[in-house]
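Session log. Operator J.P. requested a structure for one protein chain; no other inputs attached. Running the standard single-chain path with token output.
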Amino acid sequence: MKKHLYILLFFIILFFLQPVSGESNSVLVVTIDGPITQATVELIRESLDHAKSLDAQAIVLQMNTPGGGLDETEKIIEITTSSEIPFIGYVYPKGGKAWSAGTYILMSCQIAAMSNYSVIGSCQPVEITPYGYKLVNDSKHINALKERIKSLAEMYHRNSSVAERFVTENLNLEAKKALELGIIDVVADSINDLLKNIDGRNFSGIVLHTKNSTIVYHRSSIKYHIISILSDPTISSILLMLGIFSLIFGISSPGYGAEVFGVIAIILALFGMGFSIPYLSLILIIIGFIMLIIEIHVTPGFGVIGIGGIICIVLASILLVPSYPTRNWLVSIDYQTLLLVFGIVPSILVASFFLFALYKIVRVSMRKPKVGVMEGELAETLEEITPNKTGFVKYKGEYWLARSKEGKIPAREKVIIEKRDGNLLIVSIKKEGKD
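Structure written below.
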């Protein structure tokens, strides 16, 4: 009996020593596809909580990004560098990119990896000028960015002298060259290939056993998707423009709910932008808004004040595009061009639409009201009438008492209403050929 108890106890101990469902040997994969925004920060936080619940041994940040917000990038760097669960930065898919802010995030990960033919770099900020793009060489700003990426590279024993060239020379590196220069740790063409390559290797004191790990893909929350949509600079710019013009339209023509939509759209746009609107842009928007209100309610027609208001709002939309000298964004030149197009074109289109709508409203408001005006309209006599004898006429399905202006008018004759005297109509016979 004792022997059986010992055997049972032995198997119970073995059972509790086994990892539950293999979760402790899992690796969480998170996909970052698109610009680095506040939504990306939320995604990283979510994934870290998810990884802790799985007791995962690592988090793979699968990145394909043109760059993004500097403030948001700093928040992500704080999370990755202070995390007890190591982050593996992985530029994917083959031919993908992690430019600007993406390169900073890659350098902040405990293990840096790239797929073949992917590219990192382009960290030198650019300035939009009337003649095109120009690289910024302001020593104060460049030195700050250079030292930041250099310190991240040194933290994990990577080639800091090459890393700083991402900022000072706008250097770009393909995967194999980056590995050769000691900027990254691994080149792999798939998640499975990556996990096999890093298995058992020592990366700055970190040793992972990932060869047979369970791969878990993080599913982002509804909250993330909402923030992702709103924090996209193109979406927030369009929302802001729609909100402003809807508010103006709603004030000028109340009753259709445009002002309600306008307020909601502006609030959502400001939320998406994180309230990081340059003061000059905000002032221009307010001035433009006031000028359009004055144009609608004070001046007859749409003139110089209204056009000035439109120009102020369009100019503000241009200034809202992330660029030097706001220095809050680290994005590639190509993506910056795209943001500029999406910032200006929608605002011009929306402005044109509302300009046309406001023009129509002003035209209608200036038109003489015709409610109750019957003069010049056609009617039909139902009985004989004279200047002294009244009778009924039919006008638009209604029966009215009428008398003739001059002469006798028989029944079933087309007449023209000359005048309305209270409830009595003064009519004259319709002459041939007269509409």
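Operator note: Residues 333-366 form the longest helix (34 residues).
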